[in-house]
Please model this.
Amino acid sequence: MSMNETTYIGPYLACRHGNPSGKKSLNSCPNSSCSNHGRSVYENFCPQCGSKITDVEVAANMEMSLRNEMLDGDRLTDLIMEGDKVDGMHFFGANISFAPPQYKYDEDRHTEFEICPIAIEELMERFSSVFAAEIEKAKRVYGEGNVQVRFGVVRGLS
Ligand SMILES: [Zn+2]
Model:
C-alpha cells in the first residue's frame, strides 16, 4: 500500500475515542473468528456468520475497529491514518462530492478558490446534511459529546 501525503481543506468530522486501555461492551458478534467481532452490529443476527448478536465485552483499544466502522460504505475517508497519534482523535473527511455547485472546482486544473465566511457556513451545513447518517453513527460509536463537525485543514497520510 502506498501512502500519500494529503492536505484536506473543508468540513470534516473530528471524533475523540475514549479510554484506550479499558473494556467496553457493545452489541456485537460473539464469534471471535468473525470479522464483525468487536464491531457494533445493529441487527439481531450477524450478517457475516449468522451468530446471535449479544452484549460482547471487548478491549476498548479499538482504534482500528472504530475507524473501519466509520469507513463502512466508503462515503468518508480517514484523513490521518495514524489518527490516534493526534491526541486520541480520528478525523474523517468527505470521500464523495457533497459541495453545492457554486463550490465545485476541477481538481485536475490549476485553479483559485476563495474561502469566505459564507462558504464555510454553507459547506458545513451541506456536509452535516449529506453525512447526517454518518454523524449519527459516529455519535453512537464514539459517544455523543465526542463528535464534532469542524472546518479546517487536515494534513495527513492516506
Ligand atoms: Zn459474526
